[in-house]
């Protein structure tokens, strides 16, 4: 296919959004599209994309105040001559990257991965720049529509999960128990998220005493890193009962091996664009208790593959977790349903084809 697409990802870590860029670039290259990546110098995504044999351009990306990004991206576009510019993150991309595309006359697509609301005046200004906006969930699309962004300038293309990498049985339970010191008779609750307020760690910690009263052998693994890690550590140090049951293993690159060994995944977020870790857990056959926020209800279907709670509902979270911990049969049933759900609705092929259709429309409208 005769098309060149320059992707820009400003994040330095290979978190959910950056992984989607890797999936997308790989899928486009397999379809004959010429792709290249612009990313921060020394970022993890640079190594991941190079491993695919694809072109990477590393450059300084310093965030919202980095007006020089316009010149750097513009110069790269002048040399590489893309047909479409796809901006995958904020951190300056949604302002300076859009300007660079405009100055070069290159159709610009902006991905929106978060569901936090913006003022109508700012949304009107910000989303006037890109030719099209791709949201990773219907929840985010509704936020933009509510802020006055025209419907014909928004397309929802859900994020995807690699169901070959993330699948039931990939993890080894004996290894898992040794790795995290989990007793043979203990059930495990996991949470894989950045330690930031909107992910709901505080809600889970508040619910755990009720859960542990009913299931005292349960172990809780909070994967990830972020600014609230120390707050959580301090809270655990002040509560011996929680400290003996909750671990902070940090950021893990082997979640495909870890997630299949969990009994339940908790994600009581108050805001969430979609939640790649939820897709991964569902693909691994793990039932989920999530917050009714953003795109989470598009993954977690109450009674099918887990339960939803209202954000901040501590009692509701405890009830839902206890219900799943009570029944091995229910966990197996909902885990299998979750696997089937993501295979049907969140495949990599569907994500790649959805973005490709957006590019073709922008090229046609030039």
TrEMBL record:
<dbReference type="Pfam" id="PF00534">
    <property type="entry name" value="Glycos_transf_1"/>
</dbReference>
<dbReference type="InterPro" id="IPR001296">
    <property type="entry name" value="Glyco_trans_1"/>
</dbReference>
<dbReference type="InterPro" id="IPR028098">
    <property type="entry name" value="Glyco_trans_4-like_N"/>
</dbReference>
<keyword id="KW-0328">Glycosyltransferase</keyword>
<protein>
    <submittedName>
        <fullName>Glycosyltransferase family 4 protein</fullName>
        <ecNumber>2.4.-.-</ecNumber>
    </submittedName>
</protein>
<keyword id="KW-0808">Transferase</keyword>
<dbReference type="Pfam" id="PF13439">
    <property type="entry name" value="Glyco_transf_4"/>
</dbReference>
<feature type="domain" description="Glycosyl transferase family 1">
    <location>
        <begin position="177"/>
        <end position="341"/>
    </location>
</feature>
<dbReference type="GO" id="GO:0016757">
    <property type="term" value="F:glycosyltransferase activity"/>
</dbReference>
<feature type="domain" description="Glycosyltransferase subfamily 4-like N-terminal">
    <location>
        <begin position="16"/>
        <end position="165"/>
    </location>
</feature>
